[in-house]
Amino acid sequence: QLVGSGGGLVQPGGSLRLSCAASGFSLESRNIGWFRQAPGKEREGVSCISNRPGDVKYADSVKGRFTISRHNANGTMYLEMNNLNPEDTAVYYCAVGRPSTAFCSRTPGQYSRWGQGTQVTVSS
What we know:
Strand 5 (about 45-50) and strand 6 (about 55-60) form a beta hairpin. Strands 2, 4, 5, 6, 9, 10 and 11 form a seven-stranded mixed sheet that branches. The chain has a four-stranded antiparallel sheet with strand order 1-3-8-7, with no helix packed on it. The protein contains no helices and eleven strands. The model has no long low-confidence stretch (mean pLDDT about 95). It has about 120 residues and is mostly beta strands.
C-alpha cells in the first residue's frame, strides 16, 4: 500500500512537500516515480528515481523547481516542489515499480503500485 500526503492549496511562488509512505513491502531495488493529472489532461510523469547512482529524471516543466528523493530505510518517498505556478495544479500520484535494476522511467507502465493521489492547487 502507498499512502500519499502533503497536498493542499498554495499561492503562486509557494512550496509544498509531498510524501508517500509504503507499507507491506520494501522500496529497496524498486524504481519510484511521481505523476500528476490535471482535469482534462493525460497523466504526466513528473519525476522518477531508481537506486542507480545519479539516475534521476524530471519533466522539463518542473526541472529546477522540483526535487525527488527516497528514504528506503523508512519506506518513504518525497517530492519537494518550489516556485509553484497555476500550471502545476493537479492530482499528484506516487508510484512504485517491481524489483528491478532498470533505469527509472517517467512512463506509467513501469509502475505496479500507485498511491491514492493528493490534490495540489496553486492559486491566488
